[in-house]
Amino acid sequence: MSVTGVEVAVMPPQEPLEDMSNLAAALPGGEESAALAREKGWVAPQRYNYDAYNTLDKDEVVNALPWASNSAKYEWKEEYGDIGPPNEELEKMLFQDEYIPRVGKLLENLRQIEVTAETTERPDPIKSFDEAGLHPITLNNIKLCGYVFPTPVQAYCIPAVMTGHDLIAVAQTGSGKTAAFLIPVLSRLMGKAKKLAAPRPDLSNGFNESLDSVRAEPLVLIVVPTRELATQIFDEARRLCYRSMLRPCVIYGGGPTRDQRTELMKGCDILIATPGRLIDFMDRPNILTLCRVRYTIIDEADELLQADWEAEFTKILAGGDVNEDADHRYMMFSATFNRGCRQVARKFLANDYVRIRIGRVGSSHLNVTQQVVWAEDSMKKKCLYDLLMAMPPSRTIVFVNTKPQADLLDDFLFNMGLPSTSIHSDRTQREREDAIRAFKTAKSPILIATAVSARGLDIKNVMHVVNYDLPSISHGGIDEYIHRIGRTARIGNQGLATSFYNERNSDMGPDLVKILMECNQAIPDFLQSEAPPDGVLKFDDDTDDEAGDGDNTGGAGDAWGAAAAPAAAVDFTANAGDNATATDAQGAWPVDANGDW
Ligand code: ADP
Ligand code: MG
């Protein structure tokens, strides 16, 4: 793919490096480094103009760079029947360019997973979208998105949601979890939108705020931990709501409250929100009420169920309870979900909730080549420089643990002539959106990021993730590692993850080795001693603890049946002691005659 000035190369398989301290010769200085970077094919860095927006008036700014929350969506008109007419211009915006799917050839590796069920009765996972009983508009939008077959998590979640169950779904990074909840939820609402949705203005006559405003009464609430993830899910919702009456809106911190409020006042059926901004709006019940919510979805649920969010979370879920309608479904999604979080999560779910687990909870997948290299702190900068110069220019995310470190490293690379930008939580939202845009368009194909970007971000062609600083056990631990490296190798593509390691990271050693072993990766010499002596991999969250936790005891079996609802979760889990059904997902995820997906 050719993008402004940089050819985003497909990363060739790299020889594992172990110790980089000898690699890094003295750094070249000023002009020499710039020339070297150009020679290697990296585009020239562009200095970010922090003052640019101060010199423009508000309208100019918005015209120059609209906020993600103001992005165009399909606007319904009263005169439409059940399905709105196509809108060519919007269709291009929603489904072309960066949104053209780039399914990799290695989806097979996501398919080779264990999905087992502890229940005797359940609907089969769908083998194709066509057989899922979806609304015709949803099917059409899936086609426009270029999704040919459901991924395993979609194959299992779609029927679970279509049959009206609460849900916890855990599946690897980049395996299509967003569509796994949006597709069935939107499809179920589409036919009923006219009946269920709150009254709204007819936008075909324009929008006069003082006359036409309505209160936002969403049917679906999607809560996510970060702003960038919120806007990304909003984008997916804009696509899957195309030509329907369902109107998605997004609210998140740092973005313009006024604009977000105006969007809400035009009517909102699907609300995607970060918790802080959501609470702000919930405090203004004349603008937003959750009384109509039918589906509450928590993405990256284990992150949001952390203690720091507890107060907000309880309020958000209680807010939904103002809802008189008993038919309110809760769903939680993530790639990691430790036992503590699972216990908290279950408090919010109906007894007959469905648990879908694709692969081991918290596992990575084979499409990320992981290398761990020894790098003393004092050598890391040089190592990073050498590493970047040794690679074909490609989209690279470099994770650090602190905001000052992100700024320092961004400056350093910039001075070395490399096209970097950075993102962290002290940046204004405008700067954050600009950084992501510069990274996506490859104007700045190197992104220095803190943990704020570890989760959920789905950017095409991220070929390399560098853990300049590894997470520590007390801050994120191995789960954070899994989410970070999951920014590459998405949806069947390949990618490389390089982690710098030294004695300060020894707390992560044992967990890191287990992940490397599980994914058949090379174990560097300095980590050999951390490998389990008997070679047997044992993960803390391996066990199917839920069954013994009291509220879900008993044979799960009938929960799929709408009428019979014993207090038992239907469990589609791997590693639950029944590997005989390890090939379950295969039928769900057909390959074409070439073996390609
Ligand atoms: P996850 O939440 O599991 O990390 P995402 O929902 O972000 O993954 O999806 C990863 C990418 O896969 C997205 O770019 C999405 O558009 C794409 N995708 C999702 N489902 C399919 C499918 N069935 N076929 C092809 N691409 C898909
Ligand atoms: Mg996701």
Structure, briefly:
The chain has 597 residues and is of the alpha/beta class. It has 21 helices and 16 strands. It folds into 2 domains: 30-48 and 363-530, P-loop containing nucleotide triphosphate hydrolases (Rossmann fold), CATH 3.40.50.300; 114-358, P-loop containing nucleotide triphosphate hydrolases (Rossmann fold, 3-Layer(aba) Sandwich), CATH 3.40.50.300.
Residue runs with pLDDT of under 50 for 5 or more positions? 1-13, 116-121, 547-597
Q: CATH superfamily name of the largest domain?
A: P-loop containing nucleotide triphosphate hydrolases
Termini gap: 20 Å
Give the total of beta strands: 16
- Please state roughly what percent of the residues sit in beta strands, choosing from under 5%, 5-15%, 15-25%, 25-35%, 35-45% or over 45%: 5-15%
Report what the structure shows.
- The chain is an alpha/beta fold.
- It has two domains: 30-48 and 363-530, Rossmann fold, CATH 3.40.50; 114-358, P-loop containing nucleotide triphosphate hydrolases (Rossmann fold, 3-Layer(aba) Sandwich).
- It has 21 helices and 16 strands.
- It has helices at residues 30-39, 58-64, 88-95, 107-111, 136-145, 152-162, 177-190, 193-196, 209-212, 227-240, 257-265, 275-282, 301-304, 310-321, 339-348, 380-390, 403-415, 429-440, 477-485, 509-518, 584-588; strands at residues 2-3, 6-7, 167-170, 220-223, 248-251, 270-273, 295-299, 329-334, 354-357, 368-374, 395-399, 420-423, 446-449, 462-467, 495-501, 570-572.
- An eight-stranded parallel sheet has the order 5-6-4-7-8-3-9-16, sandwiched between helices.
- Strand 1 (2-3) and strand 2 form a beta hairpin.
- The longest helix is centred in the N-terminal third of the chain and has 14 residues, at 177-190.
- Mean pLDDT is 81; it is low at 1-13, 116-121 and 547-597.
- Bound molecules: adenosine-5'-diphosphate and magnesium ion (MG).
- Magnesium ion binds at residues 177-178, 299, 456.
